[in-house]
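job 3f2a | input accepted
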Amino acid sequence: MDTSGQPSDERIVVQTNTPWIGPLGRILCGFLLAVLVISVLANLGQWARYQTYFQGNDLLEERFHSGEKLAQQKIAVIEVKGSILHGDGFVKRQIDQVREDKNVKAVVLRINSPGGTVTASDYLFHHLKQLRQDRKLPLVVSMGSLCASGGYYLAMAVGDQPEAIFAEPTTWTGSIGVVIPHFDASELLKNWHIKDDSIASHKLKQMGSPTRLLSDEDRAEERKILQGLVDESFAGFKDVVRYGRPHLRDDDKQLDKAATGQIFTADQARQLGLVDKIGFIEDAIERVTALAKLSTEQVRVVQYKRRASSLMEIVMGPNAHYGNRTAISLERVVDLTAPRAYYLSTWLPAVLTNSKR
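job 3f2a | predicted structure (357 res):
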């Protein structure tokens, strides 16, 4: 206000003595904030790893599925999803989790798989069977869109349990059989003037190689050996079906009718005796609840998910380590060069890595 008593237009500006605040200061503050955030996330990752070191099942997290949220008694849903390539992966960890959790009173085995390797399928079947027997747990199967070959092999863990296999109306199942994928590229390489000049201890050491140009005699010998491997694995598959389908144990004609490698619809499979009921996972849960003599009002249905155990997984999710999931690794390419039998519902070998396993 001036001497005349009128308001003055003059403003007082106070300049602080902090010359570093400006564009450079804002950049520095942003950098420090970013470092702080990264540090917090890194410590969270290290803490998660520290926690998993002391846990028996380090990568699983129990999630509520349905039922009574506060109930102590549980029904566990063990999920098998995608190609069955490894026996010691996600499915096995779920089995181990159920084995250790005494509050689990029954199991629903949810399968959505085209199958996989003979060894991985048999390994998981063995541990599912042992889980059911050791814990005296009722086990019921719920099939998703596809439960074929090695997937069906796992379903046989139900054993003598009556009305234990449910297929959805649109499920495709069956494909009971064995395949050793094999391709002959020798003529193509010959046209390119490329010759397989590998040195081996015996001619059968390279059995199944797609690059060797074989005589008719050697080819027949090789096919006879590989066919023997397939036949033995196929006999084992049928024995497993007899274990899980009691009505087929003494009916070889009906079993042979079902074990052609064919894919069946849910209704066709039911007519063949490969499944018991057409229904969804809710029907399977209802059935296993009754088998376990549990009350639906006093049981909690749970399922298992991967637990984030690293900074990358915390920030980007559980599939962060897999990058492009359709990429074919060098390790996988090399692995495919070995003759291998598959319980698989396709002639194409399991090339892609499945992060769920």
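job 3f2a | Residues 61 and 305 are 5 Å apart (CA to CA).
job 3f2a | closed
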